[in-house]
């Protein structure tokens, strides 16, 4: 039979998760009600407006490690110090040296930032090595 403290801990966690689910279900219902009011107001001003053309705005979670835009700036500084190209691991090491955070924690955030920068055309991915993907500043890649 399981230890009583294990069972009581699991019961407490289940209670917490159940409470969160209930809270977010109420929040979703409130937001859906708000959206219906907004839709009705839009239709008052423009009855022909096709509401399905309105795209949902993406909500991003902000990093607890970096201030707004700081990771991007540090990533670009690291790349410039390395002559415009480097691997994910090398860039994370340089940011780690500057900020003093654990390399593993920095690596995940830097990898996401590098991918976003590549999708916007700022960087070009140039293969892989033992320390991760290789990146080049787009103006140097030509």
What does this structure look like?
- This protein has 142 residues and is mainly alpha-helical.
- The protein folds into two domains: 4-53; 70-141, Winged helix-like DNA-binding domain superfamily/Winged helix DNA-binding domain (Arc Repressor Mutant, subunit A, Orthogonal Bundle), CATH 1.10.10.
- Helix content is 61%, strand content 11%.
- The chain has five helices and three strands.
- A three-stranded antiparallel beta sheet has the order 1-3-2.
- Helix 2 (70-81) crosses helix 3.
- The termini are far apart.
- The mean pLDDT is 86.
Strand content: 5-15%
Integer-rounded radius of gyration: 23 Å
Numbering strands along the chain, what is their spatial order in the largest sheet? 1-3-2
Shape designation: flat
Termini Cα gap:
67 Å
Total count of domains: 2
CATH architecture of the largest domain: Orthogonal Bundle
CATH class of the largest domain: Mainly Alpha
Unreliable residue runs: none
Q: Tell me the CATH topology of the largest domain.
A: Arc Repressor Mutant, subunit A
Question: Mean pLDDT, rounded to whole units?
Answer: 86
Query: Total number of helical segments?
Result: 5
Secondary structure tally: strands: 3
| Fraction of residues in H or I helices | 55-70%
Structural class: mainly alpha
Could you give the order of the helices and strands?
Answer: HHEHHEEH
> How many strands, what sense, and barrel or not for the largest sheet?
3 strands, antiparallel
Q: Which homologous superfamily in CATH is the superfamily of the largest domain?
A: Winged helix-like DNA-binding domain superfamily/Winged helix DNA-binding domain
